[in-house]
Amino acid sequence: MKSTSAPAQPVLRTALLFGTGLGILALIWVVLLMMTGSNPYGPRRLMTVPLVPIVILASQWFVRRYYPSGPGIGKSILTGLLTALFASVTSAVTLYGVARSANPELLERNAEEAKQILQGARSYYLKQPGGEEKYKLDQQNIARTPQALAQDEFSKKLILGLLFSIPGGIFLRK
Question: What tens digit of pLDDT does each residue of 116-167 get?
Fold first, then answer.
């Protein structure tokens, strides 16, 4: 009988470790923004989004240590996809929880700031073909509820994660 020190299901465990780690890091960032008086739901919240590709590539690199000849393309891509999924879900759920438990005036302040930013960019919208419709659509899509914030967080991180999981898995398969 051969004894190994590798844990069971290294792909799932690695993705869970890295994905939830990024989600918790995003929560810490939102709480820090809130404590410093910044808008925790505004553009600064999105500063954790560029960490998604880094964390996905790191998880795909990390899972290689469990396989002497490399995890292969399937396990490597699966690690990246699961990491993106766990990071997106954890970030969205924690942001939803913070938004639900925080002062509702913060959501209103965020909506007002987003409206002002959008009004400042109106001339840019109107120069583009179909810009008036796009402007009106963006005005309607300003996040005004915790659900809308969580959906925005989830979709942005998941889409970016999916885009980086496949090429990362291809290059880090061995």
Answer: 888 888 788 778 888 778 878 777 777 788 898 999 999 999 999 999 999 9
Q: Which ranges of the chain does DSSP label H, i.e. alpha helix?
A: 10-35, 51-63, 72-101, 104-120, 122-127, 131-140, 146-171
User: What pLDDT, in 10s, does the model give residues 15-39?
Assistant: 999 999 999 999 999 999 999 988 8
Question: What count of other Cβ atoms lies within 10 Å of the Cβ of residue 68?
Answer: 7
Among 102, 86, 81, 95, CA closest to 37: 102
Task: Indicate the pTM of the whole model.
Answer: 0.85
Question: Are the beta carbons of 169 and 77 closer than 8 angstroms?
Answer: yes
pLDDT at res. 163: 95
Helices 10-35 and 72-101 pack at an angle, to 10 degrees, of 30
- For residue range 114-127, list pLDDT tens digits in order: 888 888 887 887 78
The per-residue DSSP string of 95-124 comes to HHHHHHHS-HHHHHHHHHHHHHHHHHTHHH
